[in-house]
Design goal:
Strand order of the largest sheet: 3-2-1-4-5-7-6
Distance between the termini: 22 Å
Structural class: alpha/beta
Order of helices and strands: HEHEHEEHEHEE
Helix content: 25-40%
Number of helices: 5
Number of strands: 7
Radius of gyration: 16 Å
């Protein structure tokens, strides 16, 4: 999932929908592109991913340049852990864009911790082992708790966001 336009579109949705969120856990954040765009929007984002990955070279160069111009180290922090192992108590928001096997665990972690969240599911990896289609997968995930809303992002491919903001009126929205 390395398309910058997709990461920017999701980051813009996060900023518009969760303007109060400051500390963000980017679940299965991989190479950090979503976290970078969240950083550009003023959010502190930490990648939570058990895989060993590196930021793309263009992103490392951009962060070095920003660090020099601001006179301080600017980086995208990374916690090498699964969502189940991570301590998310200091985070205001959980985000996950195409987190594959981490999709349902991330959603359940957000629900268990009563966190705001925004998740863009893609591949179907249900914890209960029941076979579901690409169309059924978001519907199943949304059925796990009341108040989960959906929005369609302006991009191709898997573009349905499942999200919840505590205290927000429940309903379904399509943008």
């Amino acid at each position: 999932m390395g398309d910058n336009r997709r990461c920017r579109a999701f980051a813009a949705f996060v900023e518009d929908t969760f303007p109060q969120a400051h500390c963000v856990a980017d679940i299965a954040g991989g190479t950090g592109q979503l976290s970078f765009w969240l950083h550009e929007l003023g959010k502190e984002s930490t990648i939570v991913d058990p895989r060993e990955t590196r930021l793309p070279s263009w992103l490392r160069r951009k962060l070095r340049k920003q660090s020099r111009s601001e006179g301080r180290l600017i980086e995208v922090p990374r916690l090498r852990a699964s969502v189940e192992e991570a301590d998310l108590d200091s985070c205001d928001l959980l985000v996950a864009m195409h987190p594959d096997e981490a999709t349902e665990p991330a959603l359940r972690q957000a629900l268990d911790n009563d966190m705001d969240f925004a998740i863009v599911p893609c591949c179907v990896f249900p914890m209960d082992g029941v076979r579901r289609s690409q169309e059924e997968w978001p519907l199943y995930l949304a059925s796990l708790a009341p108040g989960i809303e959906t929005t369609t992002l302006p991009m191709t491919g898997a573009n349905t966001v499942l999200w919840r903001r505590r205290g927000h009126a429940a309903g379904r929205h399509a943008v």
